[in-house]
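Local shape tokens

___
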Amino acid sequence: MKRPAILLLMALLASETFSQPTVTFLPVNGYFFTTDQIWNFNIINTSNQPITSNIEVSLLKNGSYPVVIAKLTNYEIKKGLNMISNSNRLLALTSYGNDATSQNFKNTGILPPGNYATCVTITNAINQTIAYSCRELQVSSFSLPVLMTPINDATIYTGYPLLAWLPVVPTNIPGLLYKLELWHSGKGGDYKVSGNLFETTLSENNFQYYPGLPLLETGKTYSWKVAAYSGDFYLGSSDIWEFTVNTTANARVGNEYEDSYRIVSNETENALYSAEDVLRIKYENIANDSVLVYSIYMVDNPDSTITDLPEIQLIRGVNKIDIDLASLETFAIDTFYILEIEDANERKYFLRFLYTEL
């Protein structure tokens, strides 16, 4: 009776000895490689029975120096396809190297840019290697989003700003998304008084604030930042910037003793008038309007209407008004523009001016 049992055991061992499982590596994120991605592979068992095995997964820097080694013991490789996943990491015995790269990977879970290799070694119950496979891995660097506008600590003259930032580079990172967060500034830019006022996730590197979103109030200061993600992987965040909303601060009734104010009429003959940073106009409010209805556009391109112009409150009679063009950061130097005003009586007034800088 013992002999058949021994022969059966030898047959089983022999079958495991000559079984050759195949390791198939799955795609990984080459810009944001994390600890769970070393388990991105499958094992195909083409034999007629399960294989009791030990699986060693190693991540090697420059193809030779161990960054991390993880071992699964007594793992049963079933017949057919075996999908290995991050859940296996929790059962593995893991050790890290002593160099800076290994310790950084251990502490952050994010692999620094460089050349690596991931290798899988499978041994059977009698410690014979029955599968061994490696693949090269290039982890590339990337830049984080950099805020552009509104510039930090700026005062803006609209409640509907365009929020824009430099994109993550390279821009072809898989599943690249941005999370924009906006909140009331508190005790420092990173202190949120009552959570986010507004947040959204988008693929573009800009967002136009629009009516219907939470109101940005005049006189209030707001903080904002942008975080980048590759799918569900957090890449990092921009700095936190602030801006203050003041929709009327850069337009005021001029002092009656100030000169150099150009009269706005229904003609455009004052072609040589120059506005150095500030456009100073004298306008008679014949229609008794409460707010100036106006637009500014390039002489050579009437469709190039300037957006986010400040609201200008009017008084009865003659108004002397300063419009701080430089603060809008949208005017081209040494370029001719036309200021067009329309009052409640449907009269139109024009002023042609040359924008220059001091």
Observations:
- The longest strand covers residues 65-77.
- Residues 12 and 332 are 83 Å apart (CA to CA).
